[in-house]
Amino acid sequence: MKPLRVALLGCGVVGTQVIRLMHEQSADLAARVGAPLELAGVAVRRLGRKRDVEVDPALFTTDAESLVTRDDVDIVIEVIGGIEPARSLIVSALSRGKSVVTANKALLAEDGATLHEAARAGNGDLYFEASVAGAIPLLRPLRESLAGDRVTRVLGIVNGTTNYILDKMDSTGASFLDALEEAQTLGYAEADPTADVEGFDAAAKAAILAGLAFHSRVTAEQVHREGITDITATDVASAEAMGYVIKLLAICARSDDGRTFGVRVHPAMIPRTHPLAGVREAYNAVFVEAESAGQLMFYGKGAGGAPTASAVLGDLVAVGRNRLAGTRGPEESTYAHLAVHPMGETVTRCHVALDVADKPGVLARVAELFAKHDVSIQTVRQEGHGDDAQLVIVTHRATDAALTATMEGLRELDIVRAIASVMRVEGDD
Amino acid sequence: MKPLRVALLGCGVVGTQVIRLMHEQSADLAARVGAPLELAGVAVRRLGRKRDVEVDPALFTTDAESLVTRDDVDIVIEVIGGIEPARSLIVSALSRGKSVVTANKALLAEDGATLHEAARAGNGDLYFEASVAGAIPLLRPLRESLAGDRVTRVLGIVNGTTNYILDKMDSTGASFLDALEEAQTLGYAEADPTADVEGFDAAAKAAILAGLAFHSRVTAEQVHREGITDITATDVASAEAMGYVIKLLAICARSDDGRTFGVRVHPAMIPRTHPLAGVREAYNAVFVEAESAGQLMFYGKGAGGAPTASAVLGDLVAVGRNRLAGTRGPEESTYAHLAVHPMGETVTRCHVALDVADKPGVLARVAELFAKHDVSIQTVRQEGHGDDAQLVIVTHRATDAALTATMEGLRELDIVRAIASVMRVEGDD
Question: According to its UniProt record, which residues of this chain constitute the active site (chains A, B) (predicted)?
């Protein structure tokens, strides 16, 4: 049987694991695909560097563009990351009829449309399971298993670094900076942690998930994004006292009328009884609600060389089988053309802690302000007294615009000394 | 666009939901498939019965055999269940080149080979996502997403009835019979609960899972099966005292040398910190360990009309798309031809509670017996004293044969009054 020839772009943590698995499992992979898979070349930035994998040195090249356009290459695996040169290389490969497997969430979230169009034009496959939640089979279930259902909401812990930090803060009482430092020491966070802690990484994944869930096109720019750098040990303790835990969530939710949807990434309190609350350390998990299927959850490792390579190899087998059968897997599905609504229209609940003067009538004036903005209060708890009095309020569901206006109003109330913390509450409706 | 014509076999709880969804979501389904789906007929046992769904009465027929062989039928959905007439009807349909979507775990586990051969011969698709764990997308991830990885173990809660019963026993201290009665009242258990509580339902699912995980052919007969009818409130309390919870597990595990595997269904203690321990009520969850992906978990509703119909519709979309593209989805994959090893070779740990005489040397004689059978002890706890003394022992990993021989030896020791309980321990290695 004629082998399928695979070009690999990138030979870092994921790339070396892809090579190792292709080598170690070559017999199994050949049986599953129906033909052997053969490495045609590996594009790297620099030759001669020592690499943690056994591979014929002649396969390395710095000329990625020539590699992806070679006639003897059937499938291209892209694990370089970033926008360029990844985009140009993927488009080159797809335009020449090759199939592409990529783990590049940033590129898919910024300009997925260009890639999908190139795949259509070239009649090849574009698979990207590894781009969201690493090893967890998530995109294929969304794209295919739930194709007969209607997804209403996706709630996901899709960034392992921030989950590690928040879990440490929750279990040890550490501050954000101490937890971040520990995550950096252990290799869970990078020296510059911006992409993770400011939610950029999660926002790219949220855009990809929303696009698949709602059969519409979504870019990272459309995702409302807030990071976790302002979360304090006090916020975490306050959440714990109320039976909640703070997680950085990627949330994609259809509006009540089903005509639009929201996509956002922000820290939120979820009840400790929610399946996502038990997701510890750097694990990822994605909770999906669909009209008929009900509540589903997918859990596993969201990053790392071997887990990501597992997802890449799964795609490689599918793409290889499709090529042998002369067919293609499911295309981009954007038929619904639903619009993303602005954050202000998103309906959420809110937890607010207010430092207030302890005198008669304070609660009445605070309650009046909430009522004025049509935000109804679910629970109020008063803590301390005298100068240290604090009101802890959890609202019912309201639009984010109404909640924001309420917070602005609170800031102007003379009896409110400070808003100690504000956080959205998810997962208990 | 010419519609794809669908024949439905069975119009019970799942069938009526399939019809409802095909109707309510017809526009979405057409967009996702690429052509409208049209109901060609519905085979039922009796005409004229009142059904909880709107459908043209002319579509009903009692002649299922004629329906599945009609030239204008492209796809057959089988939700009758049981071996016959389901098998003959599916084989008839597949032999004539139609594609089949089925939820029939019993048939797949007893004689899947016949169905897969008919699909190959007819060049049609055989999809069966709904047969295991209802709405949870599980088989597609195992068949496709993990196709580039090597699955080492599957641990699953795949029967909602028994999970509901065990969860009630754990949370309320109820006896097995009281919990069963409550499950029956709530409709979670049938009047004759044998298939669930004796593990037959879980064993069929275990056979299907093992076949997919290890790329080998497995039948329900090869599954070692024990039910939950002997579990007492004392067992549950004893597990709780040790930090464990009792679940009915379907376990498929590769042997250490990778050449054989075991498939079994039995109650087991798992640590309360294990992700499966938090699976409550009638939910299902399947924990998968793969060499590269690491630990994955899939969670959701394992039964019910709408959840099962969601899985059926997901398959229907895939099968419909394949037909339009003139191709087929992944075939049965049995290339590995691994053998199922006997239960005696399965390696597990064991929790034993012994009623013993409280006199010097008892522990020494018990420990000696374990050592004689090469079973090493991890922890021993002595409870009570005098006539009520109890030894609670948890072993290290040993073969089931050695553990069984040890239990037989204990029964013959004069200092052991009774073996109060024996249970395997899983999920903490």
Answer: 205
Let me know if A50 is exposed, middle or buried by CB neighbors in 10 A (0-12, 13-18, 19+): exposed
Residues 6+ apart with CB under 8 A from B203: B109, B220, B223, B225, B250, B265
Per domain, the residue ranges of chain A are 4-134+305-325, 140-301, 344-425
Q: Does B293 touch chain A (CB under 8 A)?
A: yes
Mean pLDDT of the region A155-161: 97
Instruction: Name the pLDDT band for A228 (thresholds 50, 70, 90).
Output: very high
For chain A positions 260-289, those within 8 Å of chain B (CB to CB) are 275, 278
Query: CB A328 to CB B325 under 8 A?
Result: yes
Position B184 scores a pLDDT of 96
Q: What residues contact residue B43 under an 8 Å CB cut-off, 6+ apart?
A: B7, B8, B9, B10, B11, B60, B61, B62, B63, B64, B67, B68, B80, B89
Q: Which CATH superfamily is domain A344-425 in?
A: ACT domain (3.30.70.260)
CB interface of B with A, residues 301-340, below 8 Å: 301, 304, 306-307, 309-318, 321, 325-328, 330, 333, 335-336
Q: Note the pLDDT of residue B359.
A: 79
| Cis amide prior to B85 (ω within 30 degrees) | yes
C-alpha to C-alpha distances, A119 to A91, A108, A140, nearest whole angstrom: 8, 13, 18
- The second-level CATH assignment, the architecture, of A140-301 is 2-Layer Sandwich (3.30)
Annotated catalytic residue: which of A50, A98, A168, A205?
A205
What band does A241 get if pLDDT is binned at 50, 70 and 90? confident
Averaged over A156-176, what is the pLDDT?
A: 97
Per CATH, the architecture of A4-134+305-325 is what? 3-Layer(aba) Sandwich (3.40)
CATH 3.30.70.260 describes domain B343-425: yes
ipTM: 0.91
What is the third-level CATH fold of B140-299?
A: Dihydrodipicolinate Reductase; domain 2 (3.30.360)
pLDDT band at A384 (very low <50, low <70, confident <90, very high): confident
Cβ of A173: how many Cβ atoms within 10 Å? 13
**Residues of chain A with pLDDT > 90: what percent?**
86
Flag residues of chain B having pLDDT under 70: 429
Assess contact for B237 and B220: CB atoms under 8 A: no
Residues of chain B positioned with their CB less than 8 A from the CB of A293: 135-136, 300-301, 306-307, 310-311
Positions of E strands within A31-182:
37-43, 60-61, 75-78, 99-102, 126-127, 151-157
- For A:151-190, CB contacts with B below 8 A are none
Q: What is the CA radius of gyration of chain A?
A: 24
Q: pLDDT tens digits for A43-94? A: 999 998 888 888 999 999 999 999 999 999 999 999 999 999 999 999 999 9
DSSP conformation class of A387 = G
At A399-417, the pLDDT tens digits run 999 999 999 999 999 999 9
| A388: confidence class by pLDDT, cuts 50, 70, 90 | confident
